[in-house]
Please model this.
Amino acid sequence: MPVRETEREVVLTHPTDDTTNVHILKYGATVYSWKLKSEEQLWLSTAAKLDGSKPVRGGIPLVFPVFGKNETDEYLSKLPQHGLARNSTWEFLGQTKENPPTAQFGLKPEISNPELIKLWPMDFLLILTVELGPDYLKTAIEVENTSCSKELKFNWLFHTYFRIEDIEGTMVSNLAGMKVYDQLLKESYVDKHPVVTFNEETDVIYQNVSPERAIQIVDKGVQIHTLKRYNLPDTVVLESVG
Ligand SMILES: O=P(O)(O)OC[C@H]1O[C@@H](O)[C@H](O)[C@@H](O)[C@@H]1O
Model:
């Protein structure tokens, strides 16, 4: 069965290989596990909670309508870090394709976290699509402003945490020469390094990375992921442990 729904989650399994699957928690529509031939690809903190008591630490948290904390906008500034999508229970809209198995989830104000939507009273519709390929995972978001009169200001981010056993031998390539904002140093510079390595705590945003640049994650000389993006110009590189 390629798509299985339980009260808590939706599981997509690839029809040609049942060791390739993805688990999506309805809370936050958070992809918290993606296995390729039984190998887990995503990091999940040992302290992660999957019971809806707090946003999942790990997997692919969905960041909307604000990335980090907003200090200036009248409404966005009232929301907690990374907004309200990851703290709301999404509706499972169903399976849209058999192969590759594809499922959709929706979020609108009526079902959003009641405490948080009070702080950001906007009209919107989010449709998340998750497609499980035999050797890839594709996630896509549609954001619709359902108000006839109000502007909708928002950030969107797939805050993906990849699983890496030993970060010391890991590099991220194809970001050389890009403008970067360092969230820890609170400063901008052009990254002159040929590759990104992880010798110290890292939390940076590469700005306006063209969609033609496929970003690669190389682990001990082996290319383990190629990231392709469409209409998502900024790329966050951060290291997380624990
Ligand atoms: O701890 P949170 O709210 O899940 O956020 C995870 C990380 O998100 C990043 O985008 C922030 O720059 C980090 O500072 C933060 O640690």
Summary: The first strand starts at residue 3 and ends at 5. The chain has one helix and 19 strands.
